[in-house]
Amino acid sequence: MSRPRTLFDKIWDDHVVETLPDGTAILYIDRHLVHEVTSPQAFEGLRLAGRSVRRPGATIAVADHNVPTSRGRVGAEADSIIQLETLERNVADFNVPYIPITDERQGIVHVIGPELGLSLPGMTIVCGDSHTSTHGALGALAFGIGTSEVEHVLATQTLLQRRAKNMRVTVKNRLRHGVSAKDMALAIIAHIGTAGGTGHVIEYAGEAVEALDMAGRMTLCNMSIEAGARAGLIAPDQTTLAYVEGRSNAPQGEAFVQASRYWLSLKSDGGAIYDAEAVLDADLMAPMVTWGTSPETAVPIDGVAPDPGALADPAARADAQRALDYMGVRAGQRLDSLAVDVVFIGSCTNSRVEDLRVAASVAKGRTVAGGVRALVVPGSGLVKKQAEAEGLDRIFQSAGFEWREAGCSMCLGMNPDRLTPGQRCASTSNRNFEGRQGPGGRTHLVSPATAAASAIAGRLADPRPLL
Amino acid sequence: MRPFTTLTGIAAPLPFANVDTDKIIPARFLKTIQRTGLGKSLFDGLRYDAQGCEIPEFILNQEPYRNAEILITLENFGCGSSREHAPWALLDFGIRCVIAPSFADIFHGNSLKNGVLPIALPRTDCEALMQDASMGGNARLTVDLMRQVVVRPDGREIPFEIDPLRKHRLLNGLDDIGQTLENADAITRFETARGAETWRTEVVL
User: Fold this and answer.
1) What pLDDT does A449 receive?
2) What angle in degrees, to the nearest 10, is found between the helix axes of B105-112 and A147-156?
3) 3-class secondary structure, A414
4) Which of A29, A75, A136, B142 has the fewest CB atoms within 10 Å of its CB?
5) First-last CA distance in chain B
6) Contact, A84 vs A67, CB < 8 A?
């Protein structure tokens, strides 16, 4: 009998075109997602070398990072317009399928991939964006790449890769009411650290992971890169198949049946060896919030900022003090005492209709606290349409939230939605790095429920009493 | 890609762990459609105040480190985004080698593809090199890729590891795409064999 293999091993083995003498693999890429920020120099590279796109039909382009999310998409900055126009010219010149900004299917690349069935289980999926790990929720090997690699995939439909190591994160038991996949992701990162998954692909397993819906699984896999892992994976199961079936680019009929058989076979074999393991208990998890400038600085919502003086390593002590100073938080201060200026519900982490439903259930019949700006930014035009069909937009707007057009918005300060220096934000996005949401902005990473509760309370707040 | 063989230059100490890609180059500078011109925005949030004036305490605002070609730093350098603008900004500033105890995966790969050499050394070696670097212009370091050693100002050598394929490509300034296309027949054979799997659909919009 052959060696037991992990889910990652199986997908990897099925995509190796050739192994070079030094062990590097030429890995075949099934789906390449392209956006406006990390592709211009790649297309320019093709032009300069006189190369074409090997498989336009395996490629899909959409603009998301730069697009204004205002009604009518007004207010794009001049340099953003250049980047958006450059993408339009490149997809035309190289015959790449493209979803224009005016199309209702436009949205954040990591939301539309699964939504349109462009991302499927068992595929290799890449994009010039580190949150490509999101698509691992489907049981696809999906990871972010740099622009040189974008050019490499466009030209060859392959990547040169060394096999990553296997890591399994098992979350046993079930999440409690009011605790979400985002809280699970933050709890995992706090446990293994921001470099805990470096060099590994993380497979998420256990009862709590299996119990997540697809939106929750996408949130969890999305944050893998915040633990240093380029990819996160969850084995395809009936939840996966039910999600994929009927999507516009998914196989139909007999092809779907055949594919399903293959997809279900991808789960890790009993006895497969992992290079690293972590086990957490969902029953012990609470709504989480970050106090610092790394996603690993997550603590329960009723927790306090730590005392750097308690750290033995001088460099770690200096880093923690710098983070507290930047965030305007005192050692020992309760996080739920911090008043917020802005609340952002959106991003590739938490902008799916399931996320908006939870946030709306908190917002319903309540009012955003005075002086707080609260934004809700659906992940795609189709998410927006579905939310509006359910009346979520009216709930948000009656409560005083802004209801905006799809895009990356305030996750990363590349479009008009950004924090001003010193502003404090409860954000459902993925990174709380210095300046991430705008120079001098202070980001606290939270779940959609916690974000909505914080908007109502005017300070970081536990959503459980409101759910 | 410009070949990387031997580099002798000023090294700047940056004694922080987890220096993320937003610190290296904030997202608002990613709106360029070129690879060059990002050096002036390298470490923008650390280097300039809200008015855009240089912060004198920041190492790269001090002589001789304005001309640094090597950066010595701590764990998990380059964590965060996949933006290749991070090594482009380092390169445009003039930094061609980063030495740290560990690197984030995507940054590590992106650097190698741009002729920026990431060298992973034990923390104690990094701390010793930071001591050397703090002596400024009197303490040039040499990075010899062929021999895989960092030479300290007093002549002592610290060996480092590098993937042989990557070393070969850096030494010769080789581009990956040309090399991969030498295997174009194997890629075509792979695609042909895949043809029967009808679920791997072409994009239909």
Assistant:
1) 98
2) 70
3) coil
4) A75
5) 37
6) yes
Given CB atoms, is A84 within the 8 Å cutoff of chain B?
no
Of B34, B76, B180, the CB nearest to A160: B180
Cα–Cα distance between B166 and B162 in angstroms, integer?
7
Say if residues A107 and A443 touch (Cβ distance below 8 Å).
no
* Amino acid making up residue B69: E
Residues of B in contact with A308 (CB under 8 A): none
Q: Which residue has the tokens 């001090």?
A: B62
The residue of A34, A436, A437 whose CB has the most chain B CBs within 10 angstroms, and thus the best one to mutate to test that interface, is A436
Rounded to the nearest 10 degrees, what angle do helices A392-399 and A381-389 cross at? 80
- Which is it for strands A59-62 and A98-99: parallel, antiparallel or unpaired? parallel
Q: Is the sign of the CA dihedral B75, B80, B84, B85 positive or negative? A: negative
> How does DSSP assign A178-215, residue by residue?
T--HHHHHHHHHHHH-TTTTTTEEEEEESHHHHTS-HH
Contacts of B53 in chain A (CB under 8 A): none
Q: Is A323 on the interface with B (CB under 8 A)?
A: no
Tokens standing for residue B104: 């984030």
* pLDDT per residue as tens digits for the range A132-185: 999 999 999 999 999 999 999 999 999 999 999 999 999 999 999 999 999 999
Whether chain B has a CB inside 8 Å of the CB on A326: the answer is no
**What is the ipTM metric for this complex?**
0.96
Q: CB neighbours of A192 closer than 8 A, spacing ≥ 6?
A: A169, A227, A278
> b/e for A92-114, b at 16 or more Cβ within 10 A?
eebebbbbebeeebbbbbbbbbb
Token look-up 């466009």 returns: A154
